[in-house]
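Quick one, probably user error.
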Protein backbone atom coordinates (compact mmCIF):
# COMPACT_ATOMS: atom_id res chain seq x y z
CA UNK A 1 0.00 0.00 0.00
CA UNK A 2 1.44 3.34 -1.03
CA UNK A 3 1.18 6.53 0.92
CA UNK A 4 1.22 7.31 4.65
CA UNK A 5 -0.33 5.18 7.34
CA UNK A 6 -2.68 7.65 9.08
CA UNK A 7 -2.75 6.30 12.65
CA UNK A 8 -6.14 4.72 13.38
CA UNK A 9 -7.47 4.85 9.81
CA UNK A 10 -5.34 1.92 8.75
CA UNK A 11 -5.49 -1.60 10.07
CA UNK A 12 -3.34 -4.26 8.48
CA UNK A 13 -4.10 -7.93 8.80
CA UNK A 14 -1.59 -10.37 7.36
CA UNK A 15 -2.68 -14.00 7.28
CA UNK A 16 0.58 -15.89 7.13
CA UNK A 17 1.11 -19.59 7.32
CA UNK A 18 3.01 -20.73 10.39
CA UNK A 19 4.08 -24.01 8.81
CA UNK A 20 6.82 -22.92 6.42
CA UNK A 21 8.55 -19.94 4.90
CA UNK A 22 7.06 -18.56 1.68
CA UNK A 23 8.69 -16.89 -1.30
CA UNK A 24 6.50 -15.92 -4.24
CA UNK A 25 7.02 -13.76 -7.32
CA UNK A 26 3.93 -12.68 -9.26
CA UNK A 27 3.63 -10.81 -12.55
CA UNK A 28 0.45 -8.91 -13.41
CA UNK A 29 -0.05 -7.56 -16.93
CA UNK A 30 -2.90 -5.16 -17.68
CA UNK A 31 -3.32 -3.69 -21.16
CA UNK A 32 0.36 -4.33 -21.89
CA UNK A 33 1.66 -2.77 -18.66
CA UNK A 34 3.58 -5.16 -16.43
CA UNK A 35 4.08 -5.14 -12.67
CA UNK A 36 6.23 -7.72 -10.91
CA UNK A 37 6.08 -8.12 -7.14
CA UNK A 38 7.89 -10.37 -4.69
CA UNK A 39 6.50 -11.57 -1.38
CA UNK A 40 8.52 -13.15 1.44
CA UNK A 41 7.01 -14.52 4.66
CA UNK A 42 8.70 -16.02 7.69
CA UNK A 43 6.52 -16.55 10.73
CA UNK A 44 4.88 -13.17 11.42
CA UNK A 45 7.37 -11.22 9.34
CA UNK A 46 6.66 -10.14 5.76
CA UNK A 47 8.73 -8.43 3.10
CA UNK A 48 7.08 -6.99 -0.04
CA UNK A 49 8.91 -5.69 -3.11
CA UNK A 50 7.66 -4.12 -6.32
CA UNK A 51 10.15 -4.76 -9.10
CA UNK A 52 8.52 -3.11 -12.11
CA UNK A 53 5.64 -0.87 -13.07
CA UNK A 54 5.94 1.75 -10.33
CA UNK A 55 7.84 4.95 -9.76
CA UNK A 56 9.03 3.57 -6.42
CA UNK A 57 10.32 0.19 -7.62
CA UNK A 58 13.23 0.04 -5.22
CA UNK A 59 11.32 0.95 -2.06
CA UNK A 60 10.28 -2.21 -0.21
CA UNK A 61 8.45 -2.83 3.04
CA UNK A 62 9.16 -5.06 6.01
CA UNK A 63 6.33 -5.82 8.44
CA UNK A 64 6.77 -7.37 11.90
CA UNK A 65 3.38 -8.24 13.36
CA UNK A 66 4.78 -9.40 16.69
CA UNK A 67 6.16 -5.90 17.32
CA UNK A 68 3.34 -4.12 15.38
CA UNK A 69 5.71 -2.19 13.15
CA UNK A 70 6.31 -1.72 9.42
CA UNK A 71 9.39 -0.25 7.74
CA UNK A 72 9.55 1.35 4.29
CA UNK A 73 13.14 0.97 3.04
CA UNK A 74 14.73 2.98 0.23
CA UNK A 75 18.00 1.36 -0.97
CA UNK A 76 18.76 4.30 -3.29
CA UNK A 77 19.15 6.78 -0.42
CA UNK A 78 20.05 4.11 2.17
CA UNK A 79 17.22 5.31 4.41
CA UNK A 80 14.14 3.83 6.04
CA UNK A 81 10.91 5.04 7.63
CA UNK A 82 9.27 3.42 10.66
CA UNK A 83 5.48 3.16 11.01
CA UNK A 84 3.87 1.80 14.16
CA UNK A 85 0.49 0.06 14.26
CA UNK A 86 -1.05 1.77 17.28
CA UNK A 87 -4.52 1.71 18.72
CA UNK A 88 -7.13 4.39 17.92
CA UNK A 89 -6.49 7.92 19.20
CA UNK A 90 -9.00 9.66 21.48
CA UNK A 91 -11.00 11.52 18.81
CA UNK A 92 -11.17 8.47 16.55
CA UNK A 93 -12.29 6.28 19.47
CA UNK A 94 -15.00 8.82 20.27
CA UNK A 95 -16.09 8.93 16.62
CA UNK A 96 -16.38 5.15 16.49
CA UNK A 97 -18.41 5.22 19.72
CA UNK A 98 -21.01 7.79 18.66
CA UNK A 99 -21.26 7.01 14.94
CA UNK A 100 -24.49 5.62 13.66
CA UNK A 101 -24.01 1.93 12.77
CA UNK A 102 -23.98 1.20 9.03
CA UNK A 103 -27.51 0.72 7.78
CA UNK A 104 -28.00 -2.54 5.95
CA UNK A 105 -30.67 -2.41 3.30
CA UNK A 106 -32.03 -5.69 2.05
CA UNK A 107 -32.76 -5.25 -1.63
CA UNK A 108 -35.23 -8.11 -1.67
CA UNK A 109 -33.76 -9.08 -5.03
CA UNK A 110 -31.80 -12.13 -6.13
CA UNK A 111 -28.51 -12.41 -7.99
CA UNK A 112 -27.90 -15.78 -9.60
CA UNK A 113 -24.22 -16.66 -10.11
CA UNK A 114 -23.53 -19.37 -12.69
CA UNK A 115 -20.16 -21.15 -12.90
CA UNK A 116 -19.27 -23.12 -16.00
CA UNK A 117 -15.83 -24.78 -15.73
CA UNK A 118 -14.45 -26.64 -18.74
CA UNK A 119 -11.46 -28.94 -18.24
CA UNK A 120 -9.38 -29.11 -21.42
CA UNK A 121 -7.64 -32.29 -20.25
CA UNK A 122 -4.24 -30.59 -20.54
CA UNK A 123 -1.82 -30.76 -17.60
CA UNK A 124 1.51 -29.12 -16.89
CA UNK A 125 4.00 -29.03 -14.02
CA UNK A 126 4.32 -25.83 -11.95
CA UNK A 127 6.68 -25.79 -8.96
CA UNK A 128 6.56 -29.57 -8.67
CA UNK A 129 2.76 -29.68 -8.74
CA UNK A 130 0.38 -30.70 -11.49
CA UNK A 131 -1.79 -27.92 -12.92
CA UNK A 132 -4.91 -28.35 -15.02
CA UNK A 133 -5.86 -26.09 -17.91
CA UNK A 134 -9.40 -24.82 -17.34
CA UNK A 135 -11.76 -22.38 -19.02
CA UNK A 136 -14.05 -20.62 -16.56
CA UNK A 137 -17.21 -18.71 -17.35
CA UNK A 138 -18.85 -16.83 -14.49
CA UNK A 139 -22.19 -15.09 -15.07
CA UNK A 140 -23.96 -12.80 -12.60
CA UNK A 141 -27.62 -12.38 -13.45
CA UNK A 142 -29.27 -9.77 -11.24
CA UNK A 143 -32.95 -9.05 -10.88
CA UNK A 144 -34.02 -5.46 -11.57
CA UNK A 145 -33.51 -3.36 -8.45
CA UNK A 146 -30.67 -5.50 -7.09
CA UNK A 147 -27.61 -3.85 -5.57
CA UNK A 148 -25.30 -5.79 -7.86
CA UNK A 149 -25.50 -5.65 -11.63
CA UNK A 150 -25.48 -8.31 -14.32
CA UNK A 151 -22.13 -9.10 -15.90
CA UNK A 152 -19.98 -11.95 -17.19
CA UNK A 153 -16.35 -12.93 -16.54
CA UNK A 154 -14.41 -15.35 -18.74
CA UNK A 155 -11.09 -16.77 -17.56
CA UNK A 156 -8.45 -18.97 -19.15
CA UNK A 157 -6.08 -20.42 -16.58
CA UNK A 158 -3.86 -23.14 -15.16
CA UNK A 159 -4.89 -24.28 -11.68
CA UNK A 160 -3.20 -26.52 -9.14
CA UNK A 161 -5.13 -28.40 -6.49
CA UNK A 162 -3.03 -27.07 -3.64
CA UNK A 163 -0.08 -24.88 -2.87
CA UNK A 164 -0.07 -25.17 0.88
CA UNK A 165 0.92 -23.17 2.72
CA UNK A 166 -0.49 -20.33 0.65
CA UNK A 167 0.95 -16.84 1.03
CA UNK A 168 -1.91 -14.49 1.65
CA UNK A 169 -2.20 -10.89 2.69
CA UNK A 170 -5.17 -8.64 3.15
CA UNK A 171 -5.63 -5.03 4.17
CA UNK A 172 -8.69 -3.07 5.21
CA UNK A 173 -8.87 0.69 5.47
CA UNK A 174 -11.11 2.17 8.16
CA UNK A 175 -11.79 5.46 6.44
CA UNK A 176 -14.42 7.38 4.57
CA UNK A 177 -17.80 8.37 5.87
CA UNK A 178 -18.96 6.60 8.99
CA UNK A 179 -22.58 5.55 9.05
CA UNK A 180 -22.98 5.00 5.32
CA UNK A 181 -25.65 2.57 4.19
CA UNK A 182 -24.98 -0.89 2.81
CA UNK A 183 -27.05 -2.93 0.41
CA UNK A 184 -27.35 -6.71 0.30
CA UNK A 185 -28.78 -9.07 -2.29
CA UNK A 186 -29.69 -12.72 -1.99
CA UNK A 187 -26.94 -14.66 -3.79
CA UNK A 188 -27.69 -18.07 -5.29
CA UNK A 189 -24.73 -19.99 -6.72
CA UNK A 190 -25.12 -22.53 -9.48
CA UNK A 191 -22.07 -24.77 -9.83
CA UNK A 192 -18.67 -24.11 -8.25
CA UNK A 193 -15.74 -21.78 -9.03
CA UNK A 194 -12.53 -23.37 -10.35
CA UNK A 195 -10.92 -25.62 -7.75
CA UNK A 196 -7.43 -24.91 -6.49
CA UNK A 197 -5.16 -21.92 -7.02
CA UNK A 198 -4.37 -20.15 -10.30
CA UNK A 199 -0.68 -20.14 -11.21
CA UNK A 200 -1.50 -18.54 -14.57
CA UNK A 201 -4.77 -16.82 -15.37
CA UNK A 202 -6.08 -14.45 -18.03
CA UNK A 203 -9.19 -12.35 -17.55
CA UNK A 204 -9.85 -10.02 -20.49
CA UNK A 205 -6.79 -7.80 -20.92
CA UNK A 206 -5.41 -8.73 -17.49
CA UNK A 207 -3.02 -11.63 -16.89
CA UNK A 208 -1.69 -12.90 -13.56
CA UNK A 209 1.24 -15.33 -13.46
CA UNK A 210 3.14 -16.84 -10.54
CA UNK A 211 6.78 -16.80 -11.72
CA UNK A 212 8.44 -18.30 -8.67
CA UNK A 213 7.28 -20.13 -5.58
CA UNK A 214 9.23 -21.81 -2.80
CA UNK A 215 8.87 -22.99 0.79
CA UNK A 216 12.64 -23.18 1.32
CA UNK A 217 13.90 -21.52 4.54
CA UNK A 218 14.49 -17.78 4.14
CA UNK A 219 17.38 -15.87 5.66
CA UNK A 220 16.49 -13.73 8.67
CA UNK A 221 18.43 -10.82 7.15
CA UNK A 222 15.66 -10.39 4.56
CA UNK A 223 13.43 -9.07 7.36
CA UNK A 224 15.98 -6.74 8.93
CA UNK A 225 16.97 -3.15 8.14
CA UNK A 226 20.27 -3.27 6.21
CA UNK A 227 23.34 -2.18 8.14
CA UNK A 228 24.22 1.49 7.76
CA UNK A 229 20.74 2.68 6.73
CA UNK A 230 19.56 5.93 8.34
CA UNK A 231 16.12 6.43 9.89
CA UNK A 232 14.17 9.35 8.34
CA UNK A 233 10.67 10.83 8.57
CA UNK A 234 9.67 9.93 4.98
CA UNK A 235 10.74 7.94 1.93
CA UNK A 236 9.38 8.09 -1.65
CA UNK A 237 5.76 6.96 -1.66
CA UNK A 238 5.42 7.22 2.12
CA UNK A 239 5.23 10.93 3.03
CA UNK A 240 5.47 12.07 6.62
CA UNK A 241 2.18 12.92 8.39
CA UNK A 242 2.53 15.94 10.67
CA UNK A 243 0.78 16.24 14.03
CA UNK A 244 -1.50 19.03 12.74
CA UNK A 245 -2.56 16.96 9.71
CA UNK A 246 -3.27 14.01 11.96
CA UNK A 247 -5.48 16.14 14.20
CA UNK A 248 -7.38 17.51 11.19
CA UNK A 249 -8.10 13.99 9.97
CA UNK A 250 -9.22 12.88 13.43
CA UNK A 251 -11.51 15.89 13.78
CA UNK A 252 -13.02 15.22 10.35
CA UNK A 253 -13.73 11.64 11.43
CA UNK A 254 -15.54 12.94 14.51
CA UNK A 255 -17.61 15.40 12.44
CA UNK A 256 -18.60 12.62 10.04
CA UNK A 257 -19.69 10.49 13.00
CA UNK A 258 -22.04 13.21 14.26
CA UNK A 259 -23.42 13.93 10.78
CA UNK A 260 -24.15 10.23 10.22
CA UNK A 261 -27.23 10.56 12.47
CA UNK A 262 -28.73 13.30 10.27
CA UNK A 263 -28.45 11.60 6.88
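Nope, works fine. Designed sequence:
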Amino acid sequence: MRGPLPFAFLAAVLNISAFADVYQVTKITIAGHESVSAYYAKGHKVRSENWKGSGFDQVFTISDLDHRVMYAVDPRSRTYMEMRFSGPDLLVSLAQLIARPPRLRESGRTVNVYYDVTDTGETEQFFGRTARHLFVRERHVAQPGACDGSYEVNKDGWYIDSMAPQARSSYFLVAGRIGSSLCRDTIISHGSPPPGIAVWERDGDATREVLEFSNAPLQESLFQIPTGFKKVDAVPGYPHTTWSTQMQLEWAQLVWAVESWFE
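The first strand starts at residue 10 and ends at 13.
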